[in-house]
Amino acid sequence: MIRSLNLINRCSRNGLSLNRGNRFFATLSANNSNNNNNTEFSAEFKSSIKLEEQKKLVKEVMDKPQGSKFLKGDVLLEGVKSDGTSLRWYKTADMCRTEPENPNQGYYPLIDDRKVRTPSGHLIITPSKEIAYAFAAEWRAQEKYVKPSRLPVTQTIITCLDIKPEGRFKIIGEFINHLATDPICNREQNDSKLKRLQNELYEPILQFANEYYGIPFSISHHLSISKHPKELIEKIEKHLHSMNNWELICLQLISQSTKSFLVTLSLYYGKLRLDNLYQTVALEEEYQSETWGKIPFGHDLAECETHNEIAPPLFILRNMLPIPLPK
User: Fold this and answer.
1) pTM of the model
2) Structural Rg of the chain based on CA atoms
3) What is the chain's mean pLDDT, rounded?
4) 128 close to 315: Cβ distance less than 8 angstroms
């Protein structure tokens, strides 16, 4: 009853059509205001309204469009809070083809049978059904609250779609600048156990990169930087420009964890196994830990974090068409 009375007042404020009981209230209220009388009606008097009229008011209020995070019928992910306090507002998550007769056009992830848009308004179309299924699986796995930390594939997809042209140039510039300090192209100067480990783990990656681009990379020692041939730099830059946003962003995200563009290429092409990845990426740390000891669980957690950061973009890359070869 209390809720119904609140709905009656809400309907009056929102300008909804008044039924017989409301018109009676409005007439009496007008007479009272003319007589400067602010008398309020009792709950017993209001309860005399027929139940059917109250149900009609409830239906009018519930049917009125409310503010929501939808854009032309699509789900807009802008409303998801980064602190994981957004309630799960949906029931289902799935995917469908953009054009059933032409599956190569891509796939739509769906939330409550609605298409999904990024916070910037871009419609999410994935290049393969595996990526769309992974998106849907992440959203199905959410419980009472939607936690972005448990949506790594979704976050990667959003990053790929929302990047701007100036962002592409920035990423390519970072790739080129970091080639001079790529750890694969740096060796310990003096003969030591560390240098032997570097030759053992780094040399296969370096040889693959030399064959891949057809121009050998330069080797630096100790604290010096590598001075690669100008032709090689230009070829790599042209190669990066030939990639689409999905390929470029995923390679960048992997490189942020591996700290090496050459390691990223070897990992993508299967020349470096995942079970040997952390040993290669954190070679010097592992070498120092043998001398000074390990922090309990510290290295294990670092290895898990590295794999967790690499897994989403690597999954997306391996479920797309192969990246273009350098020319």
Assistant:
1) 0.75
2) 31
3) 81
4) no
The span from the CA of 264 to the CA of 248, in Å, is 12
- Residues 215-240: pLDDT tens digits? 999 999 988 999 999 999 999 999 99
| Longest CA–CA separation in the chain, Å | 103
Going from the C-alpha of 287 to that of each of 182, 244, 279, 292, 294, the distances in angstroms are 18, 38, 10, 9, 10
Using alpha carbons, select from 249, 214, 256 the residue that is nearest to residue 323. 249
- Whether the CB-CB separation of 24 and 35 falls below 8 Å is answered with no
Between CA 149 and CA 152 the distance in angstroms is: 7
Write out the DSSP string of 230-298: HHHHHHHHHHHHTS-HHHHHHHHHHHHHHS-HHHHHHHHTTSS-GGGHHHHHTHHHHHHHHHH-PPTTH
Separation CA 167–CA 95 (nearest Å):
29
For residue range 143-187, list pLDDT tens digits in order. 999 999 999 999 999 999 999 999 999 999 999 999 999 999 999
Tokens of 95: 């995917």
Q: Could you tell me whether strands 114-117 and 74-76 are parallel, antiparallel, or unpaired per DSSP bridges?
A: parallel
Alpha helices in the chain (DSSP H): 2-14, 20-34, 43-46, 51-63, 129-140, 152-162, 165-178, 193-213, 230-241, 245-258, 261-268, 277-281, 283-292, 298-318
Helix/strand/coil for 187: strand
Is the backbone of residue 307 left (phi > 0), alpha (psi -120 to 50) or beta? alpha
